[in-house]
Amino acid sequence: MQVLKDPxxxxxxxxxxxxxxxxxxVHIGHQAVIQSAIRSARIKGEMAGxxxxxxxxxxxxxxxxxxxxxxxxxxxxxxxxxxxxxxLIWQSxxxxxxxxxxxxxxxxxxxxxxxxxxxxxxxxxxxxxxRNGDIETMLEAARELGIHVISIERVRYDGExxxxxxxxxxxxxxxxxxxxxxxxxxxxxxxxxxxxxxxGRSIGFPTLNIRWEPPCxxxxxxxxxxxxxxxxxxxxxxxxxxYGLRPTVENAAPFPLLEIHILGECPFDAGDExxxxxxxxxxxxxxxxxxxxxxxxxxxxxxxxxxVR
Length: 309
What we know:
Blueprint: E1 2-4, E2 16-20, H1 28-44, E3 47-54, H2 57-61, H3 73-81, E4 87-92, H4 95-98, H5 102-112, E5 116-122, H6 135-145, E6 148-152, E7 156-157, E8 160-161, H7 164-173, H8 176-183, E9 188-194, H9 199-202, E10 208-210, E11 221-229, E12 237-244, E13 257-262, E14 273-284, H10 291-308
Parallel strand pairs: 1-4, 2-3, 2-5, 3-4, 5-6
Antiparallel strand pairs: 7-8, 9-10, 9-14, 10-13, 11-12, 11-14, 12-13
Helix pairs in contact: 5-6, 7-8
């Protein structure tokens, strides 16, 4: 997949079929829009691309209360690449772009991509100044320019529309099974193992400590996870993870820490870059009276996960 940080640098002679959206999470609803663009392109042997925005518009339009994103741009790029696209275009979002009227936005796209053949968006897509543009606006503007517009009906799960907002709420509630169903892949985090205080090792449960601070934080607590190297090794090991403030051992931790105990021999060490897939919420984080009580609870958590396996 070719990645362009500057749309002006696009110079490909093939007609382009473009999915447009924020695509935070690249969930199953986003995937339906993206696959529509890919199908249109493949039928004719042409280019399939995505146009997405950086930063998130909320960071420009309401910086005091921006949307808490599900994933980093690196993760989004990885998930978009997995869809089989030919091209990813990062469009810089600014106040100037936000002021462009909806019809003018479509004309700008045609100027930037002269061989734009089709645009693919979700049925609830809004664009242009004040978000006044809708599918009808897009159809009218695109028709004059010879561009096909394909509006994709929202994907539903358990009778409710799949959306990034819905996934954020589920994350905050720790409902990882539903999060993963709506994403269409396991929710994951990445980070580098840091040297810790060796407290886990002292009570018989050595942990891999990762400082990880996503905008949209999962519920604090204990999770069933799988852990592997991000360097391409396919090995993924079962583990139990605590994501929290460690109230038993710290009076006022400044930030949540991700602590991972591998259920078996651990091949990882400080400095390793890991990918952690979050599978299931086990219990909330708790404060224990002493380390022995904490140790007993960890043993119980471990037995529970081993029994499930």
